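debug: dumping io for the single-chain case to check the tokenizer round-trip. Nothing else runs in this session.
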Amino acid sequence: MKLQYRVLLLYLCIAFLILVLIGGVLPISLHQQNLNTISHDSIDQLRHVDFALSNFIGTVRYDVHELSINDAVLNPDDSRFTSFLQADPETFHYSITPEEQEIIDTFWDYQRTHPYVSSVYMGRENGAFVRSFPRAQPTAYDPRDRPWYLLAKDNPGQVSVTEPYRAVTTDDVNIGIVTPITYPNGTIYGVVGADITLVNLTRHIERFNVVHEGDLILLDQNGMILASRNTSLLFCNIEEILHDQAPALLAQDEGVLLLNGSYLFFYTSPELGWKIGEFIPFSTIDQQMNDSIVRILIFVILALVLLSAITLLILNHTVIRPLANLTDVSKKITETGDLDQSIGTKGAGEIGVLSRSFKAMVEKIRKEEQGRRQALRDLESYRDHLEETVAERTRELEAAKEAAESADRLKSVFLATMSHELRTPLNSIIGFSGILEQELAGPLNEEQKKQLGMVSASAEHLLALINDVLDISKIEAGQLKMAIEPFEILPVIEKAVRTVRPMTVTRHLSLDLEIHGDPGVVIADSRRTEQVLLNLLSNAIKFTEHGGIKITCSREENEVKISVTDTGIGIQKEDRDKLFRPFTQIESGLTRQYEGTGLGLAISARLVSLMGGRIGFESEPGQGSTFWFTVPAEEGRS
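debug: decoded output
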């Protein structure tokens, strides 16, 4: 049999098998698929119904709450309202006070503008009862015994929804939305409510359009039917319809039940606790399934016929003749292993794709072989030079280590030299200057005193500079030793204040000290604590032209906080990140306007850290700054 006939026969067999499989499997699959789709759509639609229904009930709740806080309703004088406790239809006559008429008008205005509300009413603790319209039969009536009144009293401060109950004077079945009226001390003296009949509730949910033409039903938590197109079911229990399946419905939040002739899809409102259900007949799902089967079968048959015709038309031209040529080339490659065979790539269809793919595969194999060979050569080269590379890196690391150790030794020698060679003569200069200033070597004129004071001040400034450099160097080298011990913090602060007070007097600045409570004893280095405080005070004085300086000390839990606040130039945002770096000083304009090395804050930050404290600042440009630091406080004292 020729190839084209074999292909045709194969297509016919495949088409027959496909149709058989579709006819057997498709109905079952589509039925379940349609059921799942309808279930998903229905549950989703019921959620939307719940959202609208919850909004509806929520609106009524809000309205009832607003009615309960109406000034006329809040009137605590129960004697101004009609009581039906001893009412006799034969002898009763309404005697409505102006206060009661105002409430009736308010209730009636609300009922008239909200047609789904059948009645608006108020009951009082003395038995009085006011409604939006007169009672048809003024019989004896005590609102305090009614379910709506009892529910509101049991739930003070809330707007509650009652279970369905029958009206006293009509055949209506209502749900009440009620809330208590309370005195400011919480005592309940009445209840305000609004009734919605189940018929009105049904009319409300009938306005929702359902996709699958199902019937909606609304149940309360106990299975009582609140809304249904079949009004005879209202105020009945769902057990009368579902029988044995009712417990499953009440126990689950959402799902689907298989009934006689229909499915019941249901969803439980998370806010109201009610269940919303939709009955969808079997015929709806079956009709959708049948329509889908017909559409699929028509599409499959047309596709098979078209595919068979196209295949038979192009098979002879694009497959059989090119296939013979490709078969010959394939045999040669298989027999000889020679990949240099001439492979034609001009053919169309699958044969052309096959030949081009085969040729591309050969080229890819060649390139991969070349890549593997190059990678092998690179690995061999790397292996041959690996030892040399490691040795070179080792020599570089050893040289760097030696350079670092040499620099450290030079630094130590430099620090020792600086400590002795610079500070010794400076101390001598300062000492001799002091002797001369005291005129122990003879009297001095004013110009000599002035010049001598400049020498002494410059020497002390230089000595402080050297001490700062030595301190920061020791700190960074980890060689600075701290004398951590308990001491009273207040004397240290007072000493620092005495030290800088002459500077503030000279610059016409105020200097205030505020102590909050008893700061007590701290665990730190007293000399370094004083050094940090003096650094902060010196900076505050240096950068303050007008105003003053304030030192604040307070104990906070397990630490003592000391703050220095000035009214100086403040700190720009771009300078804040570099403020605690060594040799950094804030700039003002294009040139430095303030003396200093920029080491004071860097040293202070490191000293505070070594003592186990914290340091920080707050500042506004042009308004001043507050620098603060903490030191650990002695435990057991406050």
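debug: round-trip ok. DSSP finds 13 helices and 18 strands in the chain.
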